[in-house]
Amino acid sequence: MKYELVAGFETHIELATDTKIFCSCSTAFGGAPNSHCCPVCIGLPGTLPKLNKKVVEYGIKAGLATHGKIANISKMDRKNYCYPDLSKAYQISQLYAPLTIGGYVELSSGKKIRLHHIHIEEDAGKLIHSHGDTYVDYNRGGVPLIEIVSEPDIRYIDEAREYVEKLQQVMRYIGISDCRMQEGSMRCDVNISVRPEGSEKLGTRTEIKNMNSISNIMKAMEYEYERQVDLIENGGKVVQETLRYDDATNTTSSMRSKEDAHDYRYFRDPDLVTICVTDEEVEEIKSTLPELPTEKYKRYVSEYGVPEKDAQLLTKYRNISEYFDKAITDLKKPKTASNFIIGQMFRILQTEEDKEAFDVKTTPEQLNELCKLIEGGKVQNNLAKSTLDKMLESGKPCTEYISEEDMAGLDDSFVDDLCRQAIEANPKAVEQYKQGKEKAIMACMGYVMKNSKGKANAQDVLEKIKSMIS
Amino acid sequence: MGYIEKIQSMLQNGEISCVELTEKYLKAIEEANGELNAYVTVTPEVALEQAKQVDEKIKRGEKLLPLEGVPMTLKDNISTNGIETTCCSKILKGYKPIYDAKVWAILKKNNAILLGKTNMDEFAMGSSCETSCFGGATNPFNTDHVAGGSSGGVASAVGGDIAVFGLGSDTGGSIRQPASFCGIVGLKPTYGAVSRYGLVAYASSLDQIGPITKTVEDASLVYDVISEYDENDSTCEGRQGEPTYDTLNNDIKGMKIGIAREYLEGVREDVKEAVLEAARKYEEMGAEIVYFDLPALKFALPVYYILACAEASSNLGRYDGIRYGYKTEHYEGIHDMICKTRSEGFGEEVKRRILLGTYVLSAGYYDAYYKKAQNLRGTIIKAFDDAFKNVDVILAPTVPMTAFKSGEATSDPVETYLTDICTVPINIAGLPSVSVPCGFNKNGMPIGMQIIGDKFKEGKILNVAYKYEQACPENFKDTKWGVKL
Ligand SMILES: [Zn+2]
Question: Which molecular function terms from Gene Ontology are attached (chain A) (predicted)?
Fold first, then answer.
């Protein structure tokens, strides 16, 4: 029998606000233990939380960017559990009335992974084990998080990867988090169950907690899928439990079963007032959002004729797409600029971090200038490429490297003349071309390129000659 | 004239220096505290340093700020930077906060003289002050009797004249009940009128700080100072409208004073009689007494104990021995450490309420208890809202009885919970209420009545209370203790 994977995600994302969610301590990563702390975030008796408005704003941005509905009224709840890294013995979170409801993440296939909701909450501190003792560092305690809870819509491990990458991409675009899994600013819990293909009923699910890299998520899901299928095929039953993934052994192991699952005793936090957000405020925040990657991607492919694969690369990071958008403002063929970015520029931006930062010496305006020379038929592609390489190294404009002479005489009428001459000089080749021998036309091309000293645009020339013959 | 104004004029006229005055109070504490057990921490260094500053100010010819130079005390659940704040619990013994509660910050800025921290029921859970790990405070009218709770220490200190005023906290009657037992004035402000920042939480949606004083004027003066907006407490709006002091002496002719029949049920005869006598006094002053029904009151006690315990179970989770306070000596591993620390550090009543609160919030019981109690809270709020459409204030007994003898309260917890029946509805509805002495029983123990107002109508209830004080000064009696000015 074939088994279908059913998976859903709970993704925690640390928000890039300057200060914590309920006090004015810094959220900066690192720092000496307990140096970013105050009476509020270490939960001293009598202290009270004060909600950071930026956290609400960022949460709303996340909701809007994933097509969710922003709740006009939402509330903070207490999630009670006792652990040394949690200074108040409860986490302030949202359960009964979260900030945003619904929404989806669209995969490249067009499939939509629906979201249940997004809520805001505080992070806990960290335990540090050293010399046989355990210490607590509350620097991370009170750092704002959003938790994005998806519906169990994922059916393939590749979809899981794309879902996480898309979330990362969108959250970075809207500037609310750097989503660095290795630093813990993005963490995923995955709910997994399997069921016979064609079945509508959900199987018993397990939850793999706190995964901190995409490759671990994929490996853990693969392992857990196999484990559950094996179990069922051998007459066993999946037990509802919380699992931990160990990447050294590539296995999952039980953290706790359903029986000893926490009872969090959620209730409304009486120290915080209702969060009221008006439709006008939502609209205002919406107007500050940049164009989102999926929309950009669609625009590049359908309006600009950029190949899908290239459009994906261009939209992967906000800096690249914004550079591209600036470079192509008045170009007839944006694809020229796209080719330069993915060809020339990506060659010098090798790591993902470099690409994300997209810190190149050539300004988008300078790239635009170069592309316009090509469009005007003043510069041929090969020359432009080598020129761009030099520009990227020096930061100087293309006019530094392409002389007036290089560009002279290459106006359209001059090329037209050359084409006419080429046809006259190669009657035999023209005849052959007319009879269907496509390649024969290369003889005429050669003539034009040679007499223009290689400066003519090959593509233009080809089209010109073809139209003159027919 | 209240005691605060009297002291400030004495200071300003040079009749006594602030240091002399403070020393007088410190000496009186030394003499009386052995029997009253009102103070758990005395802070002579802080007090005398503050007093010196006040004297210098007077010497420079500067005018005193409100409450400046007036010796006072804070309940031991109000955080004081560098000064032990224990909530009278073993689990917080030795704990010195590193920040000031908002109310203490205000009083400090105004140079009110802090004599020390006063006794209370452990974490404010109790009606007799006897759940304190330091033993209970006693009643200045008769030390065989309790001072009441939970702010028993403040009431005992103010009633015994070893503080001019004090700040207590009231979650289900903890200001008004001990004030009533000790024959003095206790104001529980509207929820949100005074910042809770720095008040060690018992039940956050019910807790409110307020003054305990000997006269209504004093309560008004203190309230006007502490009812400041505080951005650190999201639920705090501060005082609404003009200072209550400005309207104390307003005419109450034609005012409608409501008496809810339910409030007189199950109340001891002498208490009931004293309250009705007060009502007659008001009629003489031209007010109209309106009897009405408030059936929602019968839900108040169960609603209170469910909500208060639920919030307490969460608020008190942080006392685990890791960061501050008491920590058990011998343990194996973190789980054992937390269990032993809490088992040894909390007293019986606190444990009982944590267990109760944990139970009503747990999966499977939440709907039946907590959620239902929340809904009923809405019903009670609405009932009071409706009542205030027809009356200006409500008159009621503060406690169904007078101060009981020490040891009587601890025997049956449910019986003790019943003594809160008149006070808890006010916390549930978030309303202001002031308890005022209105007579004595045949054994000379004080009886108190409360004047309840609509939200943020502190001005009105203090006005009504002041008029009574003017008419019946005989009910405001001194005891044999303390400083006589
Ligand atoms: Zn902090």
Answer: asparaginyl-tRNA synthase (glutamine-hydrolyzing) activity; ATP binding; glutaminyl-tRNA synthase (glutamine-hydrolyzing) activity; transferase activity
Helix (H, G, I), strand (E, B) or coil at B190: coil
B208 to B187, B238, B410: CA distances (angstroms): 10, 12, 25
Which CATH number applies to B3-257+389-475? 3.90.1300.10
Q: Give Cα separations from B324 to A16, A38, A47, B31, B125 (angstroms).
A: 31, 14, 14, 33, 21
Q: Pairing between strand B209-213 and B185-188? A: antiparallel
Residue range A412-469, CATH number: 1.10.10.410
Beta strand A241-246 pairing with A251-257: antiparallel
Interface test with A, best of B117, B171, B314, B346 (most A CBs within 10 A): B314
Sign of CA dihedral B180, B182, B186, B188: negative
State in Å, rounded, how far the first CA of chain A is from the last one.
62
Q: How far apart are CA B226 and CA B74, in angstroms?
A: 13
Burial A247-256 (b: 16+ CB within 10 A, else e): eeeeebeeee
Query: What are the residue ranges spanned by the domains of chain A?
Result: 3-284, 290-407, 412-469
Helix (H, G, I), strand (E, B) or coil at A10: strand
- Chain B residues near residue A270 by CB distance under 8 angstroms: 203-205, 235, 311
How far apart CA B100 and CA B78 sit, in angstroms, is 8
Chain A residues whose beta carbon lies within 8 Å of the beta carbon of residue B199: 46
And the tokens for B210?
Answer: 């307020």
Burial (CB count within 10 angstroms: exposed 0-12, middle 13-18, buried 19+), residue A215 = exposed
Residue with tokens 């170069």: A370
Average pLDDT, stretch A177-195?
A: 94
Most A CBs within 10 A among B93, B96, B191, B197, hence the mutation to make, goes to: B197
* Between residues B440 and A418, the one the model is more confident about: B440
pTM (2 decimals)? 0.91
- What the block records as the tokens of B184 is 């003095």
Provide the residue type at B475 as one letter: N
Considering just the CA atoms, what is the radius of gyration of chain B in Å?
21
pLDDT at B359 over 60: yes
For residues A142 and A145, what is the distance between their CA atoms, to the nearest angstrom?
9
The interface pTM score, or ipTM, of the predicted complex is 0.96
CA distance B400 to A66: 59
Query: Are the C-beta atoms of B44 and B26 separated by less than 8 Å?
Result: yes
Q: Which residues pair with B289 in a beta bridge?
A: B257
Q: Which is catalytic among the residues B57, B75, B214, B467?
A: B75
Residue B164 confidence (pLDDT): 98
Give chain B's length. 485
Query: Could you tell me the residue ranges of all domains in chain B?
Result: 3-257+389-475
Residue A296: per-residue pLDDT: 93
Q: Which residues pair with A147 in a beta bridge?
A: A12, A119
- Asked if B402 contacts B458 with a C-beta cutoff of 8 angstroms, the reply is no
pLDDT digits (tens, 9 = 90+) for B308-336: 999 999 999 999 999 999 999 999 989 99
**Other CB atoms within 10 A of residue B85 CB:** 26
What does the pLDDT look like over A374-399, one tens digit per residue?
A: 888 778 777 888 889 999 999 998 88
* Residue A211 backbone dihedrals phi, psi, to 5 degrees: -95, 140
The answer to whether B75 is a known catalytic residue is yes
Does B124 score more than 80 pLDDT?
A: yes
A87-138 pLDDT, tens digit each: 999 999 999 999 999 999 999 899 999 999 999 999 999 999 988 888 999 9
Q: Give the residue on A whose Cα is nearest the Cα of B310.
A: A267
Confidence of residue B36 (pLDDT cuts 50, 70, 90): very high
Is the distance from CB of A349 to CB of A360 less than 8 angstroms? yes
Q: How confident is the model at residue A460 (pLDDT cuts 50, 70, 90)?
A: confident
| pLDDT in the model for residue A405 | 66
Element of type H or E holding A414 = helix A412-425
